[in-house]
Amino acid sequence: MTITAQQWTSLPSEFRRLGSSEHSQNQKRGRPLESFLEGPLFVPTLSLLFVVDILYGRIFSIDPNTTAWSLIIEYDGEPNGLAWNPITRTIIIADFKQGILSLDPQTKSLTTLVSCHHGERLKGPNDLIVTTDSTIFFTDQGMTGLHDPSGHVYRLDPDDLLDMILANGPSPNDLILNRDRSALFVAMTRDNSVWHIPFYPDGSVQRVDRVSSYFGIGGPDGMTLDEEGNVFVAHSTPGTGTINLTWGGEDSNVLYIVESETGSILMVKWHCSGWLATRQSI
């Protein structure tokens, strides 16, 4: 079944800034870009969709009713993934340059939660999820790939205990929990696959396996899950620009899809609610 997404909104001209940055020099082969959008997050309690611009360290909010864009913060970082912490009511940021950060959307204050593990700097966080008890799972991708399969996946408990649960990932990207929190799915971009990480009851990792494989240049990037258990994967095939996706809308059944290089956001109305968005509405 093929469903065509509709153009919903795009980054306004006043926020487009053709140029280069540390991120574009290191990861986009020096190409001048106007922006590179990522990390969509819909927060029901705020009735706003948030996205990041990795290139220039910016986080925007979008009003779903008017599609009006607002710049929330611009800072010296490379924000990539966003997640909502329902307990602290803050936006948690996976920042490639700075680590795991917490942003208060009201005061705009930014706090560093994690920047290193056992005295060693993180490689470069990519994406994250937050559960209803404030546990944070995040990927530490850096510049890893098939040439250097040493990307990490971490779990940060509410008591600030940081545990590395995977140490051999070839470019770990987005990640999702299954509905009973017994397993984690991780997009391994350079392996062009999605890995399945099952947990023992004590939270330790069982045998990791590959549940889906793809072909061609690029690889899976963003992922999400609906309430029926269907997994959605955004594949970053060159030329498509599709990089990440999230659920939103009053019934959590609108799928927002980010086209990073064009600075556009597409939308699809789905027949059921997104499971993660429902969990985040607490």
TrEMBL record:
Organism superkingdom: Eukaryota
SUPFAM superfamilies: Calcium-dependent phosphotriesterase
Domain SMP-30/Gluconolactonase/LRE-like region per the UniProt entry, residue ranges: 38-237
Protein's name in the database: SMP-30/Gluconolactonase/LRE-like region domain-containing protein
